[in-house]
Amino acid sequence: MLLKTIIVLLLIANIIALGTAFYAMMHDMGDEKGTRTAKFLTIRVSLAALLLVVVVYGILTGQLGIAAPWHPPLS
Fold first, then answer.
1. Is 71 part of any domain?
2. Could you report the per-residue pLDDT of 37-74, keeping only the tens digit for each?
3. In the chain, fewer beta carbons within 10 Å around the N or the C end?
4. Does 40 reside within a domain?
5. What's this model's pTM, rounded to 2 decimal places?
6. In a domain, 74, yes or no
7. Is the Cβ–Cβ distance between 22 and 41 less than 8 Å?
């Protein structure tokens, strides 16, 4: 259950970082020194990579699985 909570928190943080980057892009429009957008997008990419690592860890340890009805059972 802790792993699923971490995944949800990373998803929410990813969306917040994307929204913050959008706000920075709109606010700094035309500013030559405006690098906030790049910083926030770097944070977003880092969060996405961390999310991917957490999901792969969960699948490899068996804490996460595929529960789709169209997917054949893993054996």
1. no
2. 889 999 999 999 999 999 999 999 989 887 777 777 66
3. C
4. yes
5. 0.79
6. no
7. no
Tokens standing for 51? 């999310």
Residue 40 near residue 24, CB atoms below 8 Å: yes
Q: Which structure tokens are listed for 3?
A: 């792993």
| Alpha carbon distance 61, 75 (integer Å) | 14
Whole-angstrom Cα distance, residue 28 to residue 20?
A: 12
DSSP tag of 1: -
What residue numbers bound the domain in which 47 lies? 2-61
* 4: Cα within 13 Å, side-chain hemisphere: 5
Overall average pLDDT of the 6-27 stretch: 94
Q: How many structural domains does the chain have? A: 1
Q: Which helix (H) or strand (E) holds 14?
A: helix 2-27
Residue 54 lies in a domain: yes
